Amino acid sequence: MENILVAGANGTTGKKIVDILNKSQHYNPIAMVRKEDQQAYFTDQNIQTVLGDLEADVNPVFTSPIDRVIFAAGSAGKNVIGVDQEGAKKLIDASKKANIKKFVMLSSMGADKPEEATQLQDYLKAKHNADEYLKNSGLSYSIVRPGTLTNDSQLEMIELEQKLNKHGEISRADVAQTLVQSLEDKTAANATFEIIKGDTSIQKALHKVS
Q1: Of 68, 95, 96, 168, whose CA is between 20 and 30 Å from 6?
Q2: What pLDDT score was predicted for residue 76?
Q3: What residues form DSSP beta bridges with 191?
Q4: pLDDT at 119 over 90
């Protein structure tokens, strides 16, 4: 069993990621949360937690052995530089020191060209900078850029391209599943891609960038 650190575990998508990992036969989730009162949700399910604040020193998070990382954290627009950009960079640096095998980043459609966005430009700039930092880190990575997130049911069917050139929606459940499937070494290795709801299975779609 490999230990997977999930940054942003307490978020809506983060909880779905942790749940998928917890049911897996290959992975053991470690939920990274910012506050002590967020730990009970996970410890009640016998899921390991670790306290870590992306606005502070994150190196202590790696006191326990970590094999791979999923970054699904976000500030919900409250501190896009401190969390979405610099917090991601800190975790990338700490992951490198810890010799993790792969770093899977939850990004956003539009992060490739934030200057062209009519909305959320500051957020997309922050995501762009974090993505570029990861690409240049020397870590093995996958960068997943979904369209508009919904709370719809899981379909396990997506449309995937390095650049889709169209907008669309996708459920958080399918994004979570895509992130988890991207953890494997040979899946979407050092690839950046966009996803929306579609008619191809996640596993098959990921072969496009593997």
Answers
A1: 168
A2: 79
A3: 142
A4: no
Sequential DSSP letters for 50-69:
EE--TTS--GGGGGS---EE
Active site residue 41: no
CATH of the domain at 25: 3.40.50.720
Q: Distance (Å, rounded) from C-alpha 72 to C-alpha 179?
A: 9
Tokens of 161: 């391209």
The tokens for 42 are: 């996970």
Catalytic site residue from 41, 123, 133, 141: 123
The total number of structural domains that make up the chain: 1
Give the span between the Cα atoms of 98 and 39, in whole angstroms. 23
pLDDT digits (tens, 9 = 90+) for 157-194: 999 999 999 999 999 999 999 999 999 999 999 999 99
Q: What is the extent of the structural domain holding 66?
A: 2-209
Cβ contact 160:181 at 8 Å: no
| Stretch 115-143: mean pLDDT | 93
Percent of the chain with pLDDT over 90: 90
Alpha-helix runs per DSSP H in 24-120: 40-43, 86-97
**Tokens 């997943």, located at residue:** 144
Question: Do 33 and 99 touch, CB atoms closer than 8 A?
Answer: no
Partner residues linked to 3 by β-bridges: 28
